[in-house]
Amino acid sequence: MGDVERDVDRELRKRLREPRIRDDDLFETVEEVFDRATVLALLELKQRGCLSKLSGVVSAGKEARVYLAKGKSGEYVAVKIYLTATAEFKKGIWKYIKGDPRYEWVLSLPTHKLMTIWARKEFSNLKRMYEASVSVPKPICVYRNILVMEFIGENGVRAPLLKEAAEAGLLDSDFAAQIFTEIVRNVYRMYWYAGLVHGDLSEYNVMLHGDRVYIIDVSQAVKLEHPNSHMFLYRDISNIVKFFRDELKLRTPPIDKIYYSILNKDEAQLQSPIEEHEE
Ligand code: ATP
Ligand code: MN
């Protein structure tokens, strides 16, 4: 434990003895029941200037919840809080951790520690991707089980997922082709410049803000050295191709062609894969 962490720890333990840890200003309209440790962690993030006001739930998943909050200078931020690790979750993440030398040891930890590691893993993956110019929400802060990042949306309303945009009929074929190319190019950048493979890429983990694509939910991303990284890459590409081909009736290049263009660092092949595709 470093000096800073030790100080924070001491401070938290001091506060745990205080009867009142509720900060009405921080929780304005959110009627959530957080455990004590999460409340303290949110207070710490507030003190660090990472967020000011938690003002609504964006998404309530099984393991993680995403909240809308105000950042330091009044801009919106997204706050992802990892709450529980179900047995299913532990089983699910094992395949991403196994073989990744950075994280092999974590599964033996108690749940709250696992959630902390997982939040940190998502933060560091986001950071690597962001620095490699992959289109992801900008990572802002991470502390314990809480990750603060750029909010993708407008006026506190989140942008639609690719899946939702398609269902709402927002993707005509030209736009779909453009979006498809953009996603593939982000997968390429992720591979070559961040050294990572997403591992859970699908129409549910891509947001569409205006005409810009954002890749989200990167906690499970693996380094290229991971023994299954190329299997994950192939699956990521398949998911995206199948979605555009089957749901949006786009004539995409074959999965293998995209896969090998990425592996061979053949970026030119990915510039406009739609036009170059022959039946
Ligand atoms: P779930 O169990 O709900 O699938 P998850 O672990 O998949 O959660 P994410 O996919 O990262 O978590 O986020 C869940 C949802 O929260 C997303 O589908 C999206 O609607 C919203 N969301 C995530 N990150 C952001 C962000 N940076 N800005 C706006 N909304 C976001
Ligand atoms: Mn998701």
Automatic annotation (TrEMBL):
Keywords: ATP-binding, Kinase, Magnesium, Metal-binding, Nucleotide-binding, Serine/threonine-protein kinase, Transferase. PANTHER family: SERINE/THREONINE-PROTEIN KINASE RIO1. GO terms for molecular function: ATP binding; metal ion binding; protein serine/threonine kinase activity. Residues 52-279 form the Protein kinase domain. Its EC number is 2.7.11.1. It comes from Ignisphaera aggregans. It catalyses: L-seryl-[protein] + ATP = O-phospho-L-seryl-[protein] + ADP + H(+); L-threonyl-[protein] + ATP = O-phospho-L-threonyl-[protein] + ADP + H(+). This is non-specific serine/threonine protein kinase. Belongs to the protein kinase superfamily. RIO-type Ser/Thr kinase family. CDD domains: RIO1_like (cd05145). PROSITE patterns: PROTEIN_KINASE_DOM, PROTEIN_KINASE_TYR, RIO1. Transmembrane segments: none annotated. Gene3D superfamilies: Phosphorylase Kinase, domain 1 (3.30.200.20), Transferase(Phosphotransferase) domain 1 (1.10.510.10).
